[in-house]
Amino acid sequence: MNRLLATSALIFSWCAMLITPASHAQLVPGTTPEIFKQFSEHVVKIEVVETGSAAKASTGTGFFADATGRIVTNYHVISKLVHSPERYRIDVIDVAGGTTAATVLGVDAVYDLAILRTARQPKGHLVFESKPVAQGTRLYSLGHPRDLGLSIVEGTHNGLLKHTLYPKVHFTGSLNPGMSGGPTLTQAGNVVGINVATEGNQISFLVPAERAMVLLEKTAKGGTPPAASLLADVGRQIYDNQSRYLAGMFAAKTPRVILVPYDLPTRPTEFFRCWADALRRKDLPYVSVTHDCSTDDYIFVSSEQSSGIVRFYHQLLSTTELNPARFFTLYSGQFQGGNAAMFGNEEEVTPFRCQTRNIATAHGKLKGVLCARQYVKLPALYDAVFRVATLGSRNAGLVSTLSLSGVSFDNVQALSRRYMESIKWQH
Amino acid sequence: MAALGYIEILDGKGGVSERIAVDGFPVTIGRAYGNQVILADPFVCPLHLKITQDEQGLLLASDLESVNGVYPALGNERVAQLELQSGSQFRIGHTLLRYVSVDHLLAPTLVDGAVKVSRLASPYAAVILGAILVLLLCLDAYLSSVERVTVAKIIGETWITVSMLATWAGMWALASRIVVSRFNFARHVTIACLALLTISALGVFAEWSEFFLPRVPMLWIAGVFGYGLVLAGLIYGHLGSASPLRRRSRLWTAAAISLVVVGTSAISDFAARSKFSTIMEYTGVLKPIDAAWVPATSVEEFVASSEKLKKDLDGLTKKAKALQ
C-alpha cells in the first residue's frame, strides 16, 4: 500500500503536465462542480519545507475542521517535522495562494492523523458526517494530486475494513500522492474520511472521520506541544497499539499448515495474506517449498520506518539426490543467507545485533538466531528477525523466519518464544 | 714448510670466510700488500698488527700504533698488546680475526641431524602431500556444490588453488635461489601444502565446534589466532630454506609478519563493524547429525539471554544519540 505522499522529486517529474482549466458552466446543486466550488476553499495544501534550502521536502493536503482554524491532515504528511523539528517547517497554502506557517497540535500515528494550527482565521470549515454511510454512497475526494493543483475525485463508499491493523474506509476511487490528508465528502459536503492510502486501480483507503474528531477533541485544550513530546507521543501510541494485533499471535489457536514432515503456523489473523510456491526443477538436485505470510498493512512511523509489519516465511528444503554433507551445504547457506534489512540509516536505527543458539523446544531441536535493532529516536521500539532451522534430519530441513517491525522488546521476546514453540514435527 | 697455524677472517655470524696459513713468526696484518695477512678493510691501517712468538713459545699480538687500534673479541677496550692462544679472537677495524694452531682441539663431528628435515624436503614428501591436498580439494569442491557436479567443474575449481600454491612455492624457490643459491622448490611446496592442510583442518574444527556451541565464536577465534599461527609457521618454514637466518631470527620475523597481517585484518574488521550497516551478522553453521548429539539451551534460556542483546542495543542507541 502506498501512502499518498508526494516528494519534491515527484513534483518535478510531473510539473511538465498540463492542468485542464476548470469549467465555468452553470452549476447544478449536488453535482461535482458545485461541490468543488462550495467546499474547495476549506481545503489547503500543506508543504513541509526544508529550512536550510527553503525547498519543499513533501506535500499533502489538509482541511479546516473548526472555526478556530485547526487543520486536519495525515501524520505521514508532516512526520519529517516531528522527527527533525530543527530542519523543517510547515507552510499552509490556501486556495487563493496565501501562505501561512503552521504548528502541530497533536498526532495519532496509529490512525495516521495530525492536527495543525495556523494564525489565520478561516472563512469557514468542513463538518463531519455524524450518520453511518451506506455502501455504494457516492463520495467526493479533494486534494492536491502530485502538486498539480486542487482536484476533485469521485468514487464510492465500500464499507469499513475491520481486518486491517486499524479500521479504514474502503473508497473506490483514484487517490494519488499529494492528496494525503484531504477530505472525502458526501454529496452534502460532510467529511466521511481522510484520504490516506491507495493500492492502485481505484482501491483507496480513508481514515474514518470519527478518529479525526477524537483527535480534535484531545487537542482542543492546550497549546502547541514541543516537538520532543510529539515524537514521544508517536512512540507511545505505537507501543500501546501493539497489544491489539500481536496478542495471541502464534498462540494455540493459530491455524496450521503441513509442509511434510513439519506442522507449521499460518495466517494468524485476517489481516495477513499468505502465499505458497515450490521450486522443483529437473536441473536442481533438491526441492524447495515456500509458505510466506505477511501483514498487508503497516503503520507509518517515518519515511524509513514503519511499524506493524509482521512477516513469516517457511522454506522446506528436501532432497533424494544429495548426500547429507552436500545437502547441509545448501541448508546452511539458506539459513545464513538473505540477512539484510531493506531500509535503515544511522540517524534512525542502530545496527543489528544477533545471538545464535541451539534450542530444545517441547517438539524438537532447532538452531535459532535472533537479530534486533533499536529505533534511535523511539527507543521503546525495535525491528527484529528471528530465524530457526530444524536439526536432526539428513535430507530435509526447514528454515523459518519471522520478522517484526516497530515492536517492543517484550513483544520481540514473546513472539520469538511463541514462534519457536509453534514449529512442530508431524507424528 | 708445514704450517704452524692459521689466521681466520670471520664473518658476522662467526663463520670462517677466509683462512690464511702461518708458516712462521712474526706475522704482520694490515691493508698493505707487504703483509702476510692482507685485509681489504678501510678501517685497518696499512701496517696494523704484528704477531710475535717469544722464547717460551707465547704468542703476542701488538698494535703497530694503528689509527683504530686492536680490541679483544669481547670487549670495547683498546689494548696495546694481546696474548694469543689457539682459538683467540680479536678485532681490528671492522674485521674479526681468529688465530688457531694446527693442533687446535676440534669439536666432535656432528651426527647429521638434518636427516629428518631433508626427508621432509625430499621431492617425495612434496608429491605425497600435494596428492593428499589435491584429493581433499576435490572432495571439498564436490561437497560444497549444491548443484549437479561434473568432473571438469571439480578439477577446474581445484586447479585454481593448486596453481596458486605452485606459484607461491615458486616465488619462494626463486627467492631461495637468489639468497642461498638453491631452489629448494620441493621443500617450499611441502611447507605450503602443510600450511593449507592445517588451515583446512582448523576450519573444519571451528565449524563443528561453532555448530555444537554457537555461544563461543570459534570461527572468529580460529580466523584470527589460528590463521595467524599458521601464517607464522608458513613464513618460518619458508625462511628456513630461503634465507641464512638463524632459528631465533626466523621466529621473530615470522611472528612479526604474521602479527602485522592479522593486526591489519583485525583493525579493518573492527572498522567495518563500527560502520553502520543494515546487515545482520551471524554464523549459523548446520551439520547433518542426530539431534540427540546436539547440546541445546531451553526456550527460557534463549529468551533470557536475549536481555544481553537488548543491553547491547541500548548502548548503541546511547552512542548514536550522543553523536546527533
Please give a handful of descriptors for the protein shown.
heterodimer, A: alpha+beta, seven-stranded antiparallel sheet, six-stranded antiparallel beta barrel, 19% helix, elongated, B: 324 residues, alpha+beta, five-stranded antiparallel sheet, 7 helices, 15% strand
Strand portion of chain A? 35-45%
CA-based gyration radius of chain A:
25 Å
- Number of H/I helices of chain A: 7
Order of helices and strands of chain B: EEEEEEEEEEHHHHHHEH
What is the number of strand segments of chain A?
A: 27
Major sheet description of chain B: 5 strands, antiparallel
Number-wise, the strands of chain B total 11
Mean pLDDT of chain A: 87
Count the DSSP helices of chain B.
Answer: 7
Q: Which structural class should the secondary elements of chain B be placed in?
A: alpha+beta
Give unreliable regions of chain B as ranges.
none
What this model shows, in words?
The complex is a heterodimer of chains A (about 425) and B (about 325). Chain A is α+β, with helices and mostly antiparallel strands. Chain A has helices at about 10-15, 30-40, 75-85, 210-220, 225-245, 325-335, 410-420, and strands at about 1-5, 5, 45-50, 55-65, 70-75, 90-95, 100-110, 115-120, 125-130, 140-145, 150-160, 170, 185, 190-200, 205-210, 255-260, 260-265, 270-280, 285-295, 300, 305, 310-320, 355-360, 365-375, 380-390, 395-405, 425. Chain A contains 7 helices and 27 strands. In chain A, strand 25 (about 380-390) and strand 26 form a beta hairpin. The longest helix of chain A is centred in the middle third of the chain and has 20 residues, at about 225-245. The two termini of chain A are about 40 Å apart. Chain B contains 7 helices and 11 strands. In chain B, strand 9 and strand 10 (about 95-100) form a beta hairpin. In chain B, the strands form 2 sheets. Chain B has a 5-stranded antiparallel beta sheet, with no helix packed on it. In chain B, strands 4-3-5-6-8 form a 5-stranded mixed beta sheet, with no helix packed on it. The mean pLDDT of chain B is about 90. Chain B is elongated. Chain B is about 50% helix and about 15% strand. Chain B has helices at about 115-120, 125-145, 150-180, 185-210, 220-240, 245-275, 300-324; strands spanning about 5-10, 15-20, 25-30, 35-40, 50-55, 60-65, 70, 80-85, 90, 95-100, 295-300. At the A-B interface, helix 6, strand 23, strand 24, strand 25 and helix 7 of A face strand 11 and helix 7 of B.
